[in-house]
Amino acid sequence: MCILPPAPAAAQPCPTAPAHRLLPPQRQQLALEALAGHSVSALAQEHQVSRKFIYQHRMVFSAILVNFLNRRSILAVSPEVMEAMP
Cα–Cα–Cα angle for 13, 50, 8, nearest 5°? Predict the structure, then answer.
């Protein structure tokens, strides 16, 4: 027999929050706009999401772009240079 009340359920994020309603292409567009220099505060206010949300997506998208560009630059190196590399 337990005399303690049951532990409250963990707080679940609201599934109707604006950030949850954004589709991946919309999130990418937000990240691109932030990378392009648009005001993060204005973007967050316009889409009713937090600035943290914008910064996180900007950081992830930036890393993806850097990774993509690095791979393309490696592929663009001539075969002679690739053979000379250790």
Answer: 25
Question: Taking Cα atoms as reference points, which of 54, 52, 56 lies closest to residue 30?
Answer: 54
Amino acid 21 reads R
Angle at 74 between CA 70 and CA 76, to 5 degrees: 115
What are the structure tokens assigned to 74, written together? 């490696």
CA pair distance 25, 27, nearest whole angstrom = 5
CA distance 10 to 57: 25
H-helix or E-strand spanning residue 29 = helix 24-35
d(CA 70, CA 75): 9
Does this model's pTM top 0.70? My answer is no
pLDDT by residue (tens digit) across 29-61? 999 999 999 999 999 999 999 999 999 999 999
Closest CA to 30 of 18, 40, 20, 15: 40
